[in-house]
Amino acid sequence: MSKSVDKKPLPNFVKILPVLLIICGVIGMIMAFALTYDELKLAANPNYIPSCNLNPIISCGSVMKSSQAHIFGFPNPIIGLAAFPVLLTSGVVMLSGAKLKRWYYVGLEIGAIGGIAMVTWLFFETVYHIHALCPYCMGTWIVTITSFIYITMYNLQTGNIKLGKSKRLSNFLMRHHLDILVLWFVIIAGLILKHFWYYYGHYF
To answer: Could you tell me if 2 and 54 are in contact, meaning their C-beta atoms sit under 8 angstroms apart?
Structure first.
């Protein structure tokens, strides 16, 4: 039996993961730099109006002034300035053809899970407690969720993470990764629209 039959070809998303990580890393860094810049301006001048203050709902300033924007005692974007370059570097290294150890991918998965936990918490805080939205923050939500899904898909497909008897779940995730990503974004958009319908409802 030929090797082409013995070895199942990798799904397309596995092949494009390096490029996806580079794109997510670059976008995330841009968002983090923009937020950090506005944070520094706001710290120097409490009357400073961030560039993304568009209306009472789309208001980065309201989010930046909240305690939730400083979880560890410093501005949250600093975490992004440290984390997103890791995505970018990982993508570049993978694209070069370098073979990374399993522990590296496991560490990348742990970081992705931590990122998901943080953006999920920040989503609920900004929408339901701060009652304002930050476009730059939402940009980081998008790239964090996207990178989490595809890092996880890659690790499951390549065996870096094993689910034991949950093979059926693994296969389901492999078949529907794009559906999951789209549904995730639709749910977020729906919750935002529902909560702020009192403001945006008259546009529909």
So the answer is: no
Which residues, in sequence order, are bridge partners of residue 133?
Answer: 58
Contact (CB, 8 A) for 14 and 62 = no
Average pLDDT in the 24-34 region? 96
| Rg of the chain in Å (alpha carbons) | 19
What are the structure tokens assigned to 52, written together?
A: 């993304």
pLDDT of residue 174: 78
3-state class of 35 per DSSP? Answer: helix
User: Which is nearest to 185 in space by CA: 146, 127, 148, 128?
Assistant: 146
Give the residue-averaged pLDDT of 109-124: 96
Residue that has been written with the tokens 């991918």 in this structure: 105
**Residue 135 tokens, joined:** 């476009």
Residue-level length of the chain: 204
What's the pTM?
0.88
Strands (E), the chain: none
Residue 53 has pLDDT above 90, yes or no: no
Spatial neighbors of 141 by CB under 8 A, at least 6 apart, are 119, 122, 123, 188
Distances from the Cα of 18 to the Cαs of 103, 174, 177, in angstroms?
17, 18, 17
